[in-house]
Amino acid sequence: MNWLPAEELRLGVVTSRKVGSAVVRSRARRLLREVFRQHQHEVSEPVSMVLVARQSITRSGLESVRRDYLRALARARLRKDPPTEPPPQS
Length: 90
Fold this sequence. Notes:
Order of helices and strands: EEHEH
Mean pLDDT: 91
Strand order of the largest sheet: 1-3-2
Structural class: alpha+beta
Number of strands: 3
Strand content: 15-25%
Distance between the termini: 46 Å
Shape: globular
Helix content: 25-40%
Low-confidence stretches: none
């Protein structure tokens, strides 16, 4: 994942021919865009983000891609802290 500060959150997806056929590259882009869509509220600041699909994505499912994406966000320190639940009131 590559990113730069921006005025709004944006996503770019890059898939090389090394990833596979057009069908495989399209599936990889769909997986990456879907994970981004589901977790865009967890990005701590507006950035322009570029996700680069690697060949390993061809053997991955949505959960595996999600795990990798969230790990990359955390490594880049772009992931918001998870919300804490208030203590129960008596």
